[in-house]
Write a structure and sequence with these properties.
Blueprint (H helix, E strand, L loop, with lengths): L11 H18 L8 H12 L24 E10 L3 E11 L5 E12 L7 H23 L6 E5 L2 H6 L9 H13 L5 E3 L5 H6 L3 H5 L2 H5 L54 H25 L3 H4 L10 H19 L1 H8 L15 E3 L7 E3 L11 H4 L2 E3 L4 H13 L6 H8 L3 E3 L2 H11 L1 H7 L24 E12 L8 E10 L5 E6 L4 H15 L4 E4 L3 H15 L5 H8 L3 E4 L9 H18 L6 H16 L32 H6 L2 H23 L21 E4 L11 E9 L5 E8 L2 E6 L3 E3 L20
Parallel strand pairs: 1-4, 4-5, 8-9, 10-13, 13-14
Antiparallel strand pairs: 1-2, 2-3, 6-7, 10-11, 11-12, 15-16, 15-19, 16-17, 17-18
Helix pairs in contact: 1-2, 3-5, 9-11, 11-12, 14-16, 15-16, 18-19, 21-22
């Protein structure tokens, strides 16, 4: 941008002459004209002779009067635009007006551009000058931090003045685009007509000497020094047809429907947002008011004609009027008799449902009903707190308001907190039922507050009660720990783990110390267990990698024996391993409780003691003996009752005998063995009579729920992320139990599939709640 304040020192008129001569030089060099033309030779000679003159020109940088820079002045911009067949230009002047009446006008920015090579009409060039003028004014406004409305634009072209006041879409593309650009930064009322234009000097060119002494160029025309009332005024009337307009055949179609004057065409059921409904209603009211003002102005009503012009954005009073419009509609539809009685100035009937609220009309909007109540004299409280607006329970407006408040709270508060926020302005009939109902229908609230899925507890698997009745014939395996042990003075402490084997029938437990969590360490512990307690027929565990690896190695070891009688014998004695679903510890509750008791016993015994491996093994055996001596049945106070069963009774050779020790020792070994076996069988009979019947009762998860089906959308629990950011998953496959209830499913998250229990999933199906089961008074309290 070449201007007077350009650091390069290029002056606008001088630049124009340079660019024009440069074009002529190019033409001469290409042989289009005679290079020995005397006129061109003279113009180039005069141009080179003026190259040293611009250094003598000085432009003032301060726009205020010298010596009065700190005094108060009113700054405004005045932009002059013009065009000729050679160039188009624009000048921007800063007008500083002081309280005493002094006025100083200074050139702030000027620019001129040569006309395009393509031939253009003078009106179109004048319009390009207008575009240049608004761009320069915007630059000065940004630099001086002046409001855009304080700029005044001057032009001597009536076509430009008519164009900027017309609609840009009525013109051809090139003219319409420039008109739209001018209207983007200025209003049509800011453009005025001027007979003498200083920008005309920039379109024709001046020498450096002429420019330095031109007072009109530096200080603007005389009219800027005069008062506003003395400026030339000309009433500009835009004709119906202007140059550059496009005549289009307009076809307008109307759909007419006859409605009552009291019926508003908008319906809240068509909107899902309270804010959007209110804003659309406010815009409709603004349109209606504009139509009324225009109709009143045509009838000659001076008061309506002098009404203020509406702002671009909606005002607060317009939004409040739109809100009160819907409050009144909701009240009139839900309580027609009460609304009619109160708006007509009559009292409510004795059996009116709103009588206990003592409703009154709002002071600012008499069409809205508010709670009268007993807080009329509490002047220190806000008006809406003393007289909250009454909202019906089942109306759509109430639902939208509750949803808007819930969204404002980011769906992170409970129904009571949400209702407390609403009661600061509204009194919702049966408010607690309404807030609970809306939260049950909100998907975002479902993500943050919905409970995980649950199902009635499944029947006991067959292996829990089926024979053979032998301790550790069916076991559950899990780990506890870690426990740190010292290896010597100055050596690093190592981690040791407790491998817990729990009998699924007798609840007896066996503890082994594992030196790691890898598969090899578990196989060694499992081998020690089998050597002491015999090989179990079935093993139940979770999906730990060490357990999965051990099961695979045992299966491969049996398969590697080859065919024949030996392989068949080993296969018949092979261990059947069962894995619970991932992230489902409640599937192994029978041995998880033993792990919990083992942890408690070990922590109470060891605390933070520094033990060696040998001392830790001793503590593990002590905890095992402690848990195996715990009673499994109720302890009786009657001396004639048998002692309660403990896991020790089920371990071979350790069941308690009622005969004296001396008599037992004198028995024949064969009779002694038979007596021990008889006592052991009696222990298992007591187990069938006293312990197994207690397993028949549903201790928890006693209520049946809806089965999750393939295709359902659920939230998958992820402990590493907050609840509101749990990933969405789709149910691919379900695994119903023997009772037909689904407790395990296959889900897909993106392209990954995995098996999960339903306790790790949150169903997103929104079930409607029973809104008629509220136990609160719907009038005396808002909840």
């Amino acid at each position: 941008m070449a201007s007077i304040f350009d650091p390069r020192g290029q002056l606008a008129p001088f630049t124009i002459r340079s660019r024009v001569m440069f074009q002529e030089l190019c033409i001469l060099g290409m042989g289009w004209e005679d290079p020995l033309d005397a006129e061109h030779t003279w113009r180039w000679t005069s141009w080179f002779s003026e190259l040293g003159d611009p250094a003598l020109i000085r432009a003032p940088r301060c726009f205020k009067c010298p010596g009065r820079e700190s005094s108060v002045a009113t700054l405004s911009l005045h932009v002059f635009t013009d065009a000729s067949d050679a160039a188009y230009a624009a000048n921007v002047y800063v007008r500083a007006e002081y309280p005493v009446g002094n006025v100083r006008v200074t050139l702030a920015l000027a620019k001129a551009s040569p006309c395009p090579i393509k031939k253009m009409s003078i009106p179109k060039l004048e319009l390009k000058g207008a575009v240049l003028g608004v761009c320069l004014a915007q630059t000065v406004n940004d630099a001086l931090d002046l409001p855009q409305a304080d700029a005044t634009y001057w032009s001597d072209s009536m076509n430009v003045l008519h164009w900027v006041r017309a609609h840009s879409r009525k013109f051809k593309v090139d003219v319409g685009n420039r008109i739209a650009e001018v209207q983007e930064y200025s209003a049509g009322s800011q453009w005025n007509h001027v007979p003498g234009n200083p920008a005309d000097k920039g379109t024709r060119g001046l020498t450096a000497a002429q420019l330095a002494s031109d007072a009109v160029w530096w200080n603007g025309p005389e009219l800027l020094v005069q008062q506003h009332t003395e400026w030339p005024s000309r009433q500009i009337t835009v004709p119906k047809e202007l140059p550059g307009m496009v005549k289009r055949a307009q076809v307008m179609e109307f759909a007419v429907r006859q409605v009552s004057a009291e019926v508003f065409c908008l319906h809240p059921d068509n909107y899902s947002s309270w804010k959007r409904l209110v804003r659309v209603t406010a815009w409709c009211y603004r349109f209606i008011n504009r139509c009324r003002r225009r109709h009143a102005s045509t009838r000659g009503d001076p008061e309506a004609a002098s009404a203020a012009v509406d702002s671009v954005e909606l005002k607060s009073d317009e939004l409040q009027r739109a809100e009160c419009h819907w409050y009144a509609i909701a009240q009139a539809v839900s309580y027609p008799a009460s609304y009619r009685q109160l708006t007509s100035g009559k009292s409510l009937a004795a059996n009116d449902p709103l009588l206990r609220l003592n409703p009154v009309l709002d002071k600012d909007y008499p069409c809205v009903l508010c709670v009268g109540g007993r807080l009329k004299t509490a002047s220190h409280l806000p008006e809406h707190t003393r007289h909250p607006i009454i909202l019906p329970q089942h109306h759509r407006i109430t639902q939208l308001i509750v949803d808007a408040e819930d969204c404002k709270c980011d769906h992170s508060v409970g129904p009571n907190h949400l209702l407390a926020n609403l009661m600061l302005r509204f009194w919702i009939i049966r408010g607690k039922v309404v807030t609970r109902s809306r939260r049950a229908h909100c998907v975002l609230c479902k993500k943050k507050w919905a409970t995980v899925a649950s199902q009635q507890i499944a029947p006991l698997p067959l292996f829990r009660t089926a024979p053979p009745y032998r301790a550790f014939s069916r076991v559950g395996v899990d780990y506890a720990g870690p426990f740190r042990t010292k290896q010597g003075r100055g050596k690093t402490q190592l981690k040791r783990y407790l491998c817990v084997f729990s009998c699924l029938q007798s609840r007896a437990c066996h503890f082994e110390m594992a030196y790691g969590l890898d598969t090899e360490s578990f196989l060694l512990a499992f081998t020690r267990f089998c050597k002491r307690r015999s090989v179990p027929a079935e093993v139940v565990s979770d999906n730990g990698t060490n357990f999965v690896g051990a099961e695979r190695e045992l299966r491969e070891a049996v398969q590697a024996l080859g065919s024949g009688e030996v392989a068949a014998s080993m296969a018949s004695q092979g261990v059947h391993w069962r894995f619970n679903p991932p992230l489902a510890p409640h599937f192994g509750g029978v041995f998880e409780c033993v792990v919990k008791a083992a942890k408690r016993a070990m922590m109470a015994t060891l605390s933070e003691a520094n033990l060696t491996d040998e001392e830790l093994v001793t503590a593990v055996v002590s905890a095992e003996g402690l848990l195996n001596s715990r009673p499994l049945t109720a302890v009786r106070t009657d001396v004639d009752d048998a002692a309660p069963l403990t896991p020790m009774h089920f371990l071979a050779g350790q069941c308690e005998l009622s005969l004296p020790l001396g008599e037992v020792a004198q028995l024949h070994p064969q009779r002694r063995w038979r007596l021990l076996q008889q006592r052991l069988r009696e222990v298992w009979r007591r187990w069938l009579r006293e312990i197994v019947p207690r397993l028949n009762v549903l201790q928890r998860w006693s209520r049946r729920s809806r089965n999750i089906k393939p295709g359902d959308i659920v939230l998958c629990m992820d402990k590493s992320t907050p609840r509101g950011r749990w990933p969405l998953a789709k149910v691919i496959e379900v695994f119903p139990g023997s009772d037909g209830l689904v407790c395990v499913v296959n889900i897909r998250i993106g392209a990954k599939q995995s098996k999960r229990p339903i306790t790790q999933l949150v169903p997103l199906e929104v079930e409607p709640i029973d809104e008629g089961t509220g136990q609160y008074d719907d009038l005396t309290t808002s909840d």
